């Protein structure tokens, strides 16, 4: 798999320097590359308790991205998914610790426990007060003697970092960190494995499946489950968390494991709100990439049954810009549309023939969704099929409200519906098309002439003509041939659509931004949609 890296051996050190160059002077590193990779605060006051954490790289923005006021004092970075060395941890402790001492926050993996633990012993030999807490928040394997430390670690960082910043002593900070550990639970789910730099991608998750309870180092989950969408996925996660989560109220941390889009993460946030535990969640951290696993296409949920003191600590402001803060997790506020955007709806009426025709057109567009998306991916942004099918589903749902027996009002009603439900330029153009057809029909034009009037208005507003590689290349000849019957119109639409594959210089639409080589041999998706529609009819 192609990645924006140079040599895998230099990946972590180059990435750390990239972070430091964009930190505005807040951060520095110790002079120990490549074996000692430690990021420290430049504004640190050694009279306060130092908070040191870290582990393998590949979890960004954890850990270096959370070094700063109110969070970590230093982050000790290992290679990708590898614990840092004892010397690296010791260097981090010595660099930031004064008489107040140091708290080590360690995720419960053998390598981290051993290396951080031995470094703590060596630091104590230097006369430094050190306490260490072990985070074990993963509930994927409830009977495991030593559960893994995953994204719930960030709650510990935040509470400990806040108390250290306010001047609390080492025992107070460490005890507060331990109290968080005892009340936080986490579990993750992914649709795909991560890609470890320099290694082939492991393809262990089958088609249509998701992996539940996987770790942050790419290790396999406890089971593969059938993937049935965001709601079902969140339900499975909550079912594992709820019995171990305590009584609430809760702070939820919704973590992007690295490769999930922000749009999907927002859907998962909504499904968490709708879940069986949603009413007990008062606050949210995220959704955001916080404790990632390289490019893993998954998410994790962490729940903390929070006290008043912990709430205050989690709410406090921090220096690192990658920390999303804690927000209230409440109801969706809905306000009325402004005046003028709630139009008078026409009186619905019934007409068996028009209802059947409309249903057939909509069904054809829904069935063509995948094929049109694939075609659009070659010359646009891959959403033509989805855009048309979304509009088609909306029209089917609104059929009972349409004036089916009045063709003039039906054209206008379809145009209005499309303007509200269909996105992109195609939605606007089709809304204009049907609105103009309604105006022409009101002035006495027959069905074919009304549709031609709609096409003319689209050309005037959109600027595209036949030969510009748009839907007009199929729609214009189809409407010209329509008086000779639907079969003639279908043949004309198909000829026009197929001709667009030879037009390698688009003059309108998104394809006008695409190179000639990418367009050659592929029909314009809008024209193809028109051809499929007439052929289906």
Automatic annotation (TrEMBL):
Q: Which domain of life is it from?
A: Bacteria
Identify the PROSITE patterns for this entry: DHAK, DHAL
Q: Does the keyword Aminoacyl-tRNA synthetase apply?
A: no
Start and end of every DhaK domain? 7-323
Q: Where is the DhaL domain?
A: 352-537
Q: What is this protein called?
A: Dihydroxyacetone kinase
Q: Which organism is it from?
A: Pseudoruegeria aquimaris
Q: Name one GO cellular component term.
A: cytosol
């Amino acid at each position: 798999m192609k990645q924006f890296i140079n040599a895998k051996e230099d990946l972590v050190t180059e990435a750390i320097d990239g972070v430091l160059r964009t930190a505005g002077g807040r951060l520095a590193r110790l002079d120990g590359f490549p074996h000692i990779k430690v990021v420290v605060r430049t504004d640190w006051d050694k009279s306060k308790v130092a908070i040191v954490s870290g582990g393998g790289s590949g979890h960004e923005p954890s850990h270096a991205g959370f070094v700063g006021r109110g969070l970590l004092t230093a982050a000790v970075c290992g290679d990708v998914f590898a614990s840092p060395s004892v010397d690296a941890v010791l260097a981090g402790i010595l660099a930031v610790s004064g008489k107040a001492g140091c708290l080590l926050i360690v995720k419960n993996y053998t390598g981290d426990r051993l290396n951080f633990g031995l470094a703590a012993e060596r630091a104590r030999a230097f006369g430094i007060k050190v306490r260490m807490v072990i985070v074990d928040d993963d509930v994927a394997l409830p009977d495991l003697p030593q559960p893994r430390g995953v994204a719930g670690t960030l709650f510990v960082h935040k509470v400990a970092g806040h108390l250290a910043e306010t001047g609390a002593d080492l025992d107070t900070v460490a005890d507060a960190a331990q109290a968080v550990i005892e009340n936080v639970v986490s579990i993750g789910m992914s649709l795909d494995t991560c890609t470890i730099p320099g290694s082939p991608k492991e393809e262990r998750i089958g088609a249509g499946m998701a992996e539940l309870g996987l770790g942050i180092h790419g290790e396999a989950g406890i089971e593969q489950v059938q993937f049935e969408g965001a709601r079902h996925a969140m339900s499975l996660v909550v079912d594992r968390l709820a019995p171990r989560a305590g009584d609430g109220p809760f702070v939820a941390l919704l973590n992007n494991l690295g490769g999930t889009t922000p749009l999907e993460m927002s859907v998962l946030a909504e499904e968490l709100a709708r879940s069986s535990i949603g009413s007990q969640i008062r606050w949210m951290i995220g959704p955001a990439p916080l404790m990632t696993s390289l490019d893993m296409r998954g998410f994790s949920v962490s729940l903390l049954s929070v006290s008043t003191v912990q709430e205050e600590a989690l709410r406090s402001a921090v220096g690192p810009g990658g920390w999303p803060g804690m927000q209230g997790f409440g109801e969706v506020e809905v306000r009325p549309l402004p005046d003028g955007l709630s139009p008078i709806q026409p009186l619905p009426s019934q007409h068996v023939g028009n209802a059947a025709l409309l249903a057939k057109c909509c069904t054809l567009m829904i069935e063509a969704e995948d094929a049109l998306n694939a075609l659009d991916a070659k010359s646009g942004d891959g959403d033509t099929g989805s855009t048309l099918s979304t509009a088609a589903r909306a029209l089917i749902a609104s059929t009972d409200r349409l004036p089916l027996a009045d063709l003039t009002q039906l054209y206008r009603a379809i145009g209005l519906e499309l303007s509200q439900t269909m996105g992109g330029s195609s939605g606007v153009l089709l809304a204009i098309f049907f609105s103009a057809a309604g105006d022409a029909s009101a002035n006495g034009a027959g069905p074919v002439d009304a549709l031609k009037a709609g096409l003319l208005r689209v050309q005037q507003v959109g600027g595209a003509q036949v030969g510009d590689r748009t839907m007009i290349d199929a729609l214009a000849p189809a409407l010209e041939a329509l008086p000779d019957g639907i079969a003639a119109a279908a043949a004309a639409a198909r000829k026009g659509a197929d001709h667009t594959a030879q037009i390698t210089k688009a003059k309108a639409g998104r394809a006008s931004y695409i190179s000639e080589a990418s367009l050659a041999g592929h029909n314009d998706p809008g024209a193809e949609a028109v051809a499929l529609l007439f052929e289906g009819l």
